[in-house]
TrEMBL record:
Residues 90-175 form the GHMP kinase N-terminal domain. This is Galactokinase. Residues 6-54 form the Galactokinase N-terminal domain. It catalyses: alpha-D-galactose + ATP = alpha-D-galactose 1-phosphate + ADP + H(+). ATP binds at residues 64, 119-125.
Length: 380
């Protein structure tokens, strides 16, 4: 049953419209966003789809076809940050931030469903927020741009749900275009669409969901973030973005702590890798980005130390089986990896990774192609 039919069954009337917002995968630029650096995500074909109608009585009704349980009924005047720990906090948070900013959102009925895998580092949460924000923007005629919807969605996750994420996920979901990757400058939030048409090049970018999420990741994000801030402080710059790649060696020499040195080296070199990838894509040399992805993985594994045996196995096996390059993507300690392959090698590489996982006794990974897809849009 589609979300339109689901909406009608739940609420007894037709929705005013249906909107979709995708999950994303980050091609290159990891842990660079909070250092005001660069990232380069692309939208996945997987989307959160929401059927939505306005209400004028302040009632907010939320339902997910993917979650067991009844309709969650809230009131827009009674939304309190960090009190709702269920999935409903994501769409409710969007209503809350819009109202905090003075936008007249007077209630809504929402029924949604999503094909974005949850907890795989593919931003199912951002898809939920952005689809809600776009639907409310259209229905209440708020006139907000894609980047503005992304900012509100991020604030919903930071301030209402209570998750300290950067701006990448929501911007990717709101602003990506089909056949493109998105170059995002996390300082001024400017964006540039970079043509990334894999199919016409005979290439495929595989997402390998490792199906693990190690608990270690919970405190590690805050620790890395603190370490990066400390590095910037010791180098006398506002953010690590301000350390030039050309000055990396001399900058590292000024840091006493080995741990901080590693974090700084990762961030400054990954910002540089984003530049390299952009230059190669602009020059039409898509295959040449493969080794840069693999270097990025080594940096995440050895310097930032946020990989895990499962992700290392994906990368080593894929590259060993002929992939052009591979890296873990997202927050680390599990989640997904991206693998760039000749389209004709996709099956061989997939099989090699599946066999390596089986031999190691790991849960079978989920592998699918990351076709660069459209950002959030109205679909009905
Ligand atoms: P990620 O964004 O990497 O997938 P998160 O932990 O940030 O992982 O977000 C996952 C959470 O988002 C889920 O635990 C759930 O609360 C919410 N969510 C995602 N997809 C859905 C869905 N289809 N229905 C309801 N809630 C969802
Ligand atoms: Mg998330």
């Amino acid at each position: 049953m589609g979300v339109r039919e689901g909406f009608e069954e739940l609420y007894g009337t037709a929705p005013e419209g249906v909107w979709a917002a995708p999950g994303r995968v980050n091609l290159i630029g990891e842990y660079t966003d909070f250092n005001e650096g660069f990232v380069m995500p692309l939208a996945l074909p997987h989307t959160a789809v929401a059927a939505v109608s306005r209400r004028s009585d302040g009632v907010l009704r939320l339902h997910s076809a993917d979650i067991e349980g009844p309709v969650v009924e809230l009131h827009v005047d009674e939304l309190v940050p960090r009190t709702n720990t269920s999935w409903a906090a994501y769409p409710a948070g969007v209503v809350w931030v819009l109202r905090e900013a003075g936008h007249e959102v007077t209630g809504a009925d929402i029924h949604l469903s999503s094909t974005v895998p949850t907890g795989a580092g593919l931003s199912s949460s951002a898809a939920l927020e952005v689809v809600t924000a776009l639907a409310l923007n259209d229905l209440f005629e708020l006139g907000l741009s894609g980047p503005e919807l992304a900012r509100f969605s991020q604030r919903a996750e930071n301030d209402f749900v209570g998750v300290p994420c950067g701006i990448m996920d929501q911007t990717a979901s709101a602003c990506c275009e089909e056949g493109h990757a998105l170059h995002l400058d996390c300082r001024d939030l400017s964006i540039r669409q970079i043509p990334f048409d894999l199919a016409s090049e005979g290439l495929s970018l595989l997402v390998v969901d490792s199906r693990v999420k190690h608990a270690l990741g919970d405190g590690a994000y805050a620790e890395r973030r603190e370490g990066c801030e400390e590095g910037a402080r010791q180098l006398g710059v506002p953010f690590l973005r301000d350390v030039a790649y050309e000055d990396l060696s001399s900058s590292l020499a000024r840091l006493s702590d080995e741990r901080i040195q590693r974090y700084v080296r990762h961030v400054v070199s990954d910002d540089h890798r984003v530049d390299q990838v952009i230059n190669l894509l602009d020059a039409g040399d898509v295959r040449a980005i493969g080794p840069i992805l693999t270097e990025g993985h080594a940096s995440l594994r050895d310097d930032l130390r946020i990989s895990c045996p499962e992700l290392d196995l994906v990368v080593d096996t894929a590259v060993g089986a002929g992939a052009l390059g591979a890296r873990m993507t997202g927050g680390g300690f599990g989640g997904s990896a991206v693998v760039l392959v000749e389209a004709s090698d996709a099956d061989t590489v997939t099989k090699a990774v599946e066999e390596a996982f089986a031999a190691a006794g790991y849960t079978a990974p989920r592998v699918f192609p990351a076709v660069p897809s459209a950002g959030a849009r109205r679909v009905e």
